Amino acid sequence: MIGLGLIGGSVLRAAKAAGRTVWGATASKEDADKARAEGFDITSVDEALGRDPEALVVLAVPLPALPDLLRKIPAGTRLTDVTSVKGPVHDAVHRYAKEVRFVGGHPMAGTSQSGWDAGSATLFQNAAWVVTPEEADDHLNDVMELALDLGAHVVPTTPEEHDEAVARISHLPHVMAAILAATGADGGPLAMALAAGSFGDGTRVAGSRPELVRAMCEGNRDALLMAVDDALGRLGAARGSLASTGGLAKTIEAGHEGRNTLVNQPQRTKITIDLTKPGALAALRNLGSRGGRVVGLNGSTATAETS
Ligand SMILES: O=C(O)C(=O)C[C@]1(C(=O)O)C=C[C@@H](O)C=C1
User: For the Prephenate/arogenate dehydrogenase domain, which residue ranges apply (predicted)?
Assistant: First the structure.
């Protein structure tokens, strides 16, 4: 495990709790000391990377730190990551660490806290864990098994589809939360004294560490621009109808429908996917694109739920 912040620290704790042999490294001396004090085996980055050529290496560092780290990864290493954007990570791996075996990963879990202290062994329970495989092979199976062991279900897709989806459901919400929090705070002390559930829920993630949110959103610039344009169109339409007719029916009803789509997810049907078959990669990506997920792995047979 390289990087012991909220996500890295949670992967390390959860993997240990699942009975795996784990060790970690971090550039933060403070996080390293805390992890050691809790009994974890923490080494330098070079030692962690060199200890076992067969180990699955998980990178949990912010996007801007990846190029320098990738240059150090030995050829043949079995690698995954937990970064919240996938296209730029795949590009960086192809550029700086051509000889590694890589499956991109992204657990859809977090809190507005950061650092080792914020991590938890249960963070990934029932979470979606995206994988962006380029082949269906034993390395993909190992990465999926890690996610399943940690309590998550696996959503396979492509880097492009992942980045477009998370721009809408993660990165845009962070931008909106920032705008909402700043707009509310500009209302002055009375507005802050009256702020209740809607303001609190809508601005929760604005409490996250700004540099981490910036790295996440700016790392997905192109897809986020499209999502921002979509939201601006809706905000413009809401403003227009409020100004001209005083009504907000379309905006509110579309929002209500969107929320219902999240809450009332369709019934899922169980299927199996033989991961040794030639079309396995396409079958997995197709599953994820349609909102399905892998929920179990037995040898090279994946149990999946389609929606
Ligand atoms: O719950 C939160 O606090 C989060 O911000 C988690 C959240 C998100 O839902 O946007 C943020 C980034 C991660 O990459 C995945 C999930």
Answer: 1-273
